[in-house]
Design a protein that fits this description.
Elements lengths: L2 H31 L4 E8 L2 E12 L4 E2 L6 E3 L4 H14 L9 H5 L15 H5 L42 H15 L3 H13 L3 E2 L14 E4 L4 E4 L8 H5 L17 E3 H12 L3 E2 L2 E2 L3 H8 L13 E3 L8 E8 L2 E8 L4 E7 L6 E2 L2 E2 H16 L3
Length: about 375
């Protein structure tokens, strides 16, 4: 290597570092306007992680800096896509069908009392078109089980299954239980075996099996008290529930609908797999057809496929695919553009902000900033 070439590399490195530092300052400025505890973010470009950083704190009380690479977040509803991915693997293996009677998969009758002859399918659950609602709650399958709950009928909306869209967390806790019944393996273990381990990702649904020191502390803002309060329930241990676990029924203990704990960088690596239609770093998790099915809206009005949805407003002129999450004060977003092979993951572990249609404006501004600096202006 010549001296000139070495000097050129050093010069380019200095420019890149200065540019990244400038972006970091802009993200930090956005975070401070929303009084965010911390924001971790990753930019994927040309199908690879291009930039990763974080501002603020993993632990506000101890003033521990946040890391995008090592700190684990409970990512909330982005977790649904992991559940759907595992189920699509079973559909590929002909162990389940997207269009068979879901009652046969879950072990009790699943029929809307207003439309008792209309079959409710796995496809409907994964696309939120099942007509099932969260009116009876969603952390226990008794909510919808006619053998356990005399008020099970309240758990359905008064429209024909498959005809309309309504977001429903119970759909995915039921789907996770059906997965367990199909494979005879506990939900969290199966996800680790079939998705996380093959992709080399750290994380999981079971709090007790993870490094508790890696969790990014989550804070919720109390508008009345005008202060942030830590939310230890986000990472509450499940030891007692696991000891009394009933495979295929008490699955909501792990929250297939929102319980994945993973770092921002590893979530980006998972996103790359979906961006590549089922493959990442030479490892294929899904067939291309299955990945495309997940990304194709079932309900055109909602733009929602199978745990992945279209978003045409996040970045002007772009149809993005992905999901958001919110729980305990945390907000997460994961969206990608499969044709142009870029994507952005951003997560905050607490902030004060306003909302429009349940969309976190803080993360939208961060995504816009990252897109303009690393994708749009870098072309």
């Amino acid at each position: 290597m010549t001296m000139k070439y070495t000097m050129l590399l050093l010069f380019l490195g200095m420019i890149t570092s200065a540019f990244s530092q400038g972006v970091r300052q802009k993200v930090d400025s956005i975070a401070k306007r929303y009084d965010a505890i911390g924001v971790a973010y990753v930019v994927v470009k040309d199908g690879q992680i291009f930039h990763s950083d974080a501002v603020g704190y993993k632990d506000w009380d101890q003033k521990i800096a946040l890391s995008a690479s090592t700190d684990l977040f409970r990512i909330a509803s982005i977790s649904k896509s992991f559940t759907a991915t595992a189920l699509m693997q079973l559909v590929e293996a002909n162990k389940l069908s997207l269009d068979a009677d879901f009652g046969d998969m879950i072990g009790f009758r699943v029929r809307n009392p207003y439309f008792p002859d209309k079959v409710i399918t796995l496809r409907m659950l994964l696309s939120h078109t099942s007509s099932i609602s969260d009116k009876n709650g969603y952390f226990n399958l008794d909510a919808i089980n006619p053998n356990k709950n005399p008020e099970w009928e309240r758990g359905y909306n008064n429209y024909e299954p498959g005809s309309q869209y309504e977001y429903c967390n119970l759909n995915f806790n039921m789907a996770g239980a059906a997965l367990e019944r199909a494979v005879g393996v506990r939900f969290d273990i199966y996800i680790k075996q079939k998705i996380l381990a093959p992709l080399g990702l750290k994380g999981g649904y079971c709090v007790d099996s993870l490094d508790k020191g890696a969790f990014a502390k989550i804070y919720e803002y109390d508008g009345v008290k005008r202060q942030f309060e830590a939310q230890p329930a986000a990472y509450a241990p499940r030891s007692e529930e696991i000891r009394n676990y009933k495979l295929g029924y008490t699955t909501p203990v792990f929250s297939p609908t929102g319980g994945m704990k993973i770092s921002t960088e590893d979530l980006a690596r998972y996103m790359i797999m979906h961006m590549n239609y089922g493959e990442s770093a030479g490892v294929r998790i899904l067939q291309q057809s299955s990945a495309r099915t997940m990304q194709t809206p079932v309900n055109k009005w909602a733009g929602y496929g199978l745990a992945l949805r279209e978003n045409k407003n996040l970045i002007s002129g772009k149809t993005m695919v992905g999901h958001t999450g919110s729980a305990y004060g945390l907000y997460s977003t994961m969206f990608f553009q499969p044709e142009e092979r870029f994507g952005i993951v951003a997560i905050t572990n607490g902030c004060k902000q306003t909302f429009e249609d349940d969309k976190p404006e803080l993360l939208e501004e961060v995504v816009d900033c990252l897109y303009k600096h690393f994708i749009l202006f870098a072309k």
